[in-house]
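re the bet — no i am not wrong, look at it urself. input seq straight from the record:
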Amino acid sequence: PDALVSASGVIAVEGCETGAPVPVRDYHGTADTVVGYDGTDTNRVSYIGAQESVAIWRKRNGCTEASTTSVEGDVTCQAWECDVPTELCTVSDWGHLWPGGANRTANQHDATREAWEFYLRARALSETSAN
């Protein structure tokens, strides 16, 4: 894939640990009661947490420990120095929702627009490295 963008989900599954780098951006709310941010057992199902999920992609994507953080209202995005873009955007007090469109947070963060821009940047990087 050109890039992966997820909201309120776990994007690390068996077999993701190796392979070509894949740009990843994950949005996850700290108050998600379906797929818990910290990997808590929700609805009698256990998931790995958002940090652990992105850590798998960080390893695959050749990331260093160095990162930058940007804050827009209640959305904090952490981006690591990697072979390809790898980011975790944490939405404070946000549940199991896509943070965009009709579900915009109080700060009007539009994850739909941000995800599309992330995808376009990742695709442009991919095309540049292929030439």
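see?? The first strand starts at residue 4 and ends at 7. told u. also The radius of gyration is 14 Å. so pay up
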